Amino acid sequence: MQGTIDGFSYGLVTPLVAYLMACLGGALGLRCTTRSMLVAGRWRAGWLAMGSAAIGSGIWTMHFIAMMGFTVRETPIHYDKPITFASLAVAIVMVGIGIFIVGYKGATGTALFTGGTITGLGIASMHYLGMAGMRLNGKLEYNTLTVSASVVIAVAAATAALWAAGQVRGFLWSVGASLVMGLAVTGMHYTGMAALNVHLHGAAGGTPAGESPASLLAPMLIGPLAFLFLAGVVVLFDPMMVMGRPAAWTTTEQRPGIPAHATAAHLGRRPAARSRHHHEGTRRPSSRTPQNW
Q1: C-beta atoms surrounding 5 within 10 Å
Q2: CA Rg, the chain, in Å?
């Protein structure tokens, strides 16, 4: 027996709020990634870690806000707490791997493709692991073709967002990228939900194991939301984020994707040029001195 699925039991409220959370997490994460490219050393790692947590928290929060509006008419839905927590960890870790690759190697070529693929797979893994945490009187079945389409959407969205973060073109550029990323991530979620069918075990099913959405998801959302708020405060009051791209990089070697030997060669030529001009400047007065006498 097939269950009657409703993904919009609260109308457009849950999709809109979910989209806004995906945009918020994407905006903060992309701005942190952009900021990391303007510094070096531990500061870069710190900004990339914050960006990873922001994007992971944003897409996880988006997913479960959207799931608040998901119902199966014939059976209640509960959630397994360990698996639900594990989906958040998977999102942050896999998104972090992709962001660190782009942050240290640059948002071009192989690094961008690898980082975008890993980040997109992290988004998709979070979604389907979160779905695996559902407990109901039935079995979840997926359409393989639609699931594949949702994964492709996630990878394409993540790659495009990381490329935009690597451009370092100012605040409005990142806002536009986050809006696109939020749309793609939310679209990936509902594409994945469209692939779902619920095959009920029987008409007389008991209460499923786990906890109800109200008792589990609502308290669990407080932590990621609080983190996104704090990350927003950090980004908002960082002067380099407000001003966008600085007039010049502080050092050439801070730019991701620039080999260290190229920086050394570049820096090694400048003193010679200055020294030559300095010697020429010191010789000219002495050559004119006899003429003046």
Answers
A1: 15
A2: 26
- Beta bridge partners of residue 71, listed in sequence order: 6
d(C-alpha 279, C-alpha 32), whole Å: 46
Q: How many of the other CB atoms lie within 10 Å of CB of 102?
A: 30
Q: What is the pLDDT of residues 139-193, one digit of tens each?
A: 999 999 999 999 999 999 889 888 877 775 666 777 788 888 888 889 999 999 9
* CA dist list (Å): 31 to 27, 70, 165, 244: 6, 32, 7, 10
- Give the Cα separation of 58 and 53 in Å (integer): 8
CA distance 225 to 88: 13
CA 246/CA 168 separation, integer angstroms? 10
Q: What angle (nearest 5°) sits at the alpha carbon of residue 90, between those of residues 87 and 96?
A: 140
User: Rounded CA gap, 210 and 145, in Å?
Assistant: 30
H or E element that contains 110 = helix 109-132
The label of the residue with tokens 């509006």 reads 69
Entry pTM: 0.76
